[in-house]
Amino acid sequence: MKTRLYIRLLYESLSMAFQSLMGNKLRSVLSVLGITIGIFSIVLVFTLVDSLEMNIKKSVQSLGKDVIYIDKWQWVGGSNDYPWWKYINRPTARLSEIRAIREQPVNSLIEAMSFTSSENTTIKAEDKTIENTTISGYTFEFTKIENLEISEGRFFNEFEDNNGRPVAVIGYNIAKGLFDTEKNLVGRKFSMFGKQVEIIGVFKNQGDNLINIDFDDRVVVPIRFLQYVSSGTEDANIIVKAKANVGVDAIYEELRGSMRNVRRLKPAEEDNFSLNKISFLSDAIGEFFQVVNKFGLIIGLFSLLVGGFGVANIMFVSVKERTNIIGIQKALGAKNEFILFHFLTEAVVLSILGGLFGILLTWGVAALGNLLIENMLESGFRLVMTWDNFTTGILYASIIGLVAGIIPAHRASKLVPVEAIRSK
Hints:
424 residues, alpha+beta, 2 domains, elongated
């Protein structure tokens, strides 16, 4: 019985609220506009931050799943007691260490391993030159670690890797820069480090990402060929992929112990290497954007606060205009709770309408931004307004409506019927 009464009360309050809003269109529009700007500010900030976070995490995930990077550097975190110069003095990863790890018990937990190193140089093909090109060397097992998308040709095999053959898989932008096309390039050659290199494959266009982790602007060659033509190995590391039924967390300590054995470290000696998981970067990114979200929320709340004052002002005016009507309603038996609920409903409806318009405006800005980014910048970055952002916008709009309407509604509910009817 009470449920039906509350439903009827809600229906009547909503009806009266919409009638009041439609009866004062200009005033309602001005109030809605303030909330619209506030919700637009908050949802837009959340959308930008969430989109930035999702695009960065997507780029980070391209480093590989279920993998650990053995490096001299620690990507994030680390102890303040460990000075930077110790990182510099650590030995660089060596190709021979892959064979040594294979002889350790941890090998039974490993799906694949790849050694990698990079160098920058100038590449030439006919009359075209590209300076400062990143040449990345890998071992052939890299294809088992990352799902490489090759639009034409293939990746180099074990024979070409072990013998350091001068073959390469080139990125989309490299192909366009050297040959003005990304098609029919298998078998063609270009030069780097004074050597002729044969193209055996072309990577599919991956598009730009925020941290530039892709192969569009890279040339990938067998690591032994890169070591033959270049002596630089300062950024070398070993990528280890755990078996699917094992996972990186289970293999982490086992791999650490194996590396200590490989480098013959005594029990009292500290590690002279770092084991980096992709989750380290993802967690650090998540923590950073949580802070950014808080600052964005504070900025947006200031805008929403202005809209809240507008709603409160309109509700005070509305109560003033309908004082005699409130008196008549109370004289006919309307309870204080009904009057309070009615004006609160009106304030919340007003705020939610503003919130919906603010969310719609945000969606339009995101759609326009994606169109411009795709057509003008040719970037893989995308603005995404999630359902969480939608519900957050509606929630904040509802809360600001309740807060802005509570004092006017309470004042209306406490009016004395006789005095209210006599008021003009």
